[in-house]
């Protein structure tokens, strides 16, 4: 037994096996394998004292973790696809039950009725939210759901041109672009006009399979789905809509505008931020397209005793049929995260969902009005919006965000990172978690930044105290 094996008996590979893997890769050591990663991005050793008891170790690690500043300990106005929303206690209570938390893909319906029913009810809830006829399960997340929707549209239309509005979430666009490139599809990005898709110059023709818009879009603006649908359908293409589930508690469902496929992410509903994941995606479409749905679809039937029973009705995946006929190889379960969304929606109900949407909308509009009343802060887009909006400042966005952090505020997203033309622009998101005190703090801090005196005498907050200890 080597020294490494003796000190770390739980490691699955021996030193000899690791050397063989490195040799196959073509490097001499692990250090050589990762040398291309900048030093500042590599994890640093904790340098813990040796000989500590478990109790001492736990205390020391806790002290280290306390230096972090999670969104829950700050006034967070981050959005752009992942949102801090309240998760009712019932969600965690249901998810922690053994029959759900330990369950895997329900291949055997006779022993998976609970999981299958949960999937079936999830699909039903998605249909009710989106205004569509059928929904599937097992999408990884929102971005992959969109990519799968574009591939599905191409199969249905036998066309290869995919047009995605520039106002669609950058992460959704990049994943979809990668899928399209790998499958030989023509990915094109549609230009914007004032924060929404430019319908006048929209390049949709007889070669177009689908046009993708987001509702509300990445900038928070509401696209004119009715006008987009008419132009897209007139060209014989599909309209694919990326939707935010909480907003659908108040906004007209995409299906009512004639959307052909609707996709989105379950994260805002019962799924915490959790350092960026995991989550679950959803996809809903028209009944006539059901045979091209990727993933799986759960249905309800009657068993040989006349009792209601749930089963996997459609499974056009490579695990169940010949690969050449599979609609997709997307095959994870994701049922636990989907269940979180289901429990959340059921617990708040349609009235509660509308109230949550309304609270977010009212507070977002109030904050935008107050911020744009501050000299030096403007709103570049005038379209109606839901709970996210864009502001422009005189100072570079990254500097504004750094200054806001010193006040214990996560002020939003620097849009110039993904939209270089939007220099000094911030995407600000408001949810029910942002109470009046948060809004007051944000406005006060921005007033100080504009005046240029934030660094010269602001009141110390949780964020500034954490900054002194090295917390993030």
Notes on the structure:
By secondary structure, the chain is an alpha/beta fold. It has three domains: 3-65, no CATH class; 73-86 and 351-468, Aspartate Aminotransferase, domain 1 (Alpha-Beta Complex), CATH 3.90.1150; 89-344, Aspartate Aminotransferase, domain 2 (3-Layer(aba) Sandwich), CATH 3.40.640.10. It has helices spanning 3-7, 15-25, 30-33, 54-65, 89-95, 98-101, 113-130, 142-157, 170-183, 225-234, 335-372, 397-405, 436-451, 462-468; strands at residues 75-76, 134-135, 161-165, 186-190, 192-193, 196-197, 208-215, 238-243, 261-265, 281-285, 297-302, 308-314, 377-378, 388-393, 409-410, 413-414, 425-429. The protein has a seven-stranded mixed beta sheet, sandwiched between helices. Strand 7 (208-215), helix 10 and strand 8 (238-243) form a beta-alpha-beta unit. The longest helix has 38 residues, at 335-372. The model is unreliable at 456-472 (pLDDT under 50).
Tell me the overall shape.
Answer: globular
Q: Provide the CATH architecture of the largest domain.
A: 3-Layer(aba) Sandwich
Number of discrete helical segments:
14
CATH H-tier superfamily of the largest domain: Type I PLP-dependent aspartate aminotransferase-like (Major domain)
Question: What would CATH call the class of the largest domain?
Answer: Alpha Beta
Q: Largest sheet at a glance?
A: 7 strands, mixed
Averaged pLDDT? 90
């Amino acid at each position: 037994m080597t020294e490494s094996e003796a000190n770390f008996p739980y490691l699955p590979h021996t030193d000899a096996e690791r050397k063989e893997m490195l040799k196959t890769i073509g490097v001499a050591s692990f250090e050589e394998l990762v040398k291309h990663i900048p030093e500042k991005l590599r994890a640093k050793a904790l340098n813990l004292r040796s000989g500590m008891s478990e109790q001492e170790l736990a205390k020391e690690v806790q002290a280290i973790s306390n230096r972090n500043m999670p969104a829950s300990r700050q006034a967070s106005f981050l959005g752009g696809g992942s949102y801090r929303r309240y998760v009712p206690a019932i969600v965690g209570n249901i998810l922690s039950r053994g029959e759900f938390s330990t369950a895997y893909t329900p291949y055997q319906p006779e022993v998976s009725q609970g999981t299958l029913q949960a999937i079936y009810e999830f699909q039903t809830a998605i249909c009710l939210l989106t205004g569509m006829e059928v929904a599937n399960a097992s999408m990884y997340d929102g971005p992959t759901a969109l990519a799968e929707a574009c591939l599905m549209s191409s199969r249905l239309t036998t066309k290869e041109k995919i047009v995605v509005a520039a106002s669609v979430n950058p992460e959704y666009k990049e994943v979809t672009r990668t899928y399209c490139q790998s499958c030989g599809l023509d990915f094109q990005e549609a230009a914007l006009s004032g924060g929404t898709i430019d319908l006048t110059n929209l390049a949709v023709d007889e070669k177009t399979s689908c046009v993708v818009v987001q509702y509300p879009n990445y900038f928070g603006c509401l696209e004119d789905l009715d006008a987009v649908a008419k132009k897209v359908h007139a060209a014989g293409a599909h309209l694919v809509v990326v939707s935010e589930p909480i907003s659908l508690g108040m906004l007209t469902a995409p299906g009512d505008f004639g959307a052909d496929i609707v996709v989105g992410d379950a994260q805002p509903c019962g799924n915490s931020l959790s350092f960026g994941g995991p989550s679950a995606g959803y996809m809903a479409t028209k009944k006539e397209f059901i045979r091209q749905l990727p993933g799986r679809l759960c249905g309800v039937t009657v068993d040989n005793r006349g009792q209601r029973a749930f089963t996997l009705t459609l499974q056009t995946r490579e695990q169940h049929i010949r690969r050449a006929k599979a609609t997709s190889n997307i095959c994870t379960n994701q049922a636990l995260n989907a269940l979180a969304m289901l429990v959340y929606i059921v617990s708040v109900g349609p009235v509660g969902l509308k109230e949550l949407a309304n609270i977010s909308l009212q507070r977002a509009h109030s904050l935008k009005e107050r911020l744009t009343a501050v000299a030096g802060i403007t709103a570049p887009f005038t379209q109606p919006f839901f709970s996210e909006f864009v502001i422009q400042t005189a100072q570079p966005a990254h500097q504004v965000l750094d200054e806001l952090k010193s006040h214990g505020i996560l002020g939003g997203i620097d849009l110039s990172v993904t939209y270089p033309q939007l220099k000094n622009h911030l995407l600000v998101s408001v949810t029910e978690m942002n109470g009046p005190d948060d809004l007051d703090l944000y406005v006060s801090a921005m007033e100080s930044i504009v005046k240029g005196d934030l660094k010269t005498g602001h009141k110390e907050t949780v964020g500034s105290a954490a900054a002194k200890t090295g917390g993030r």
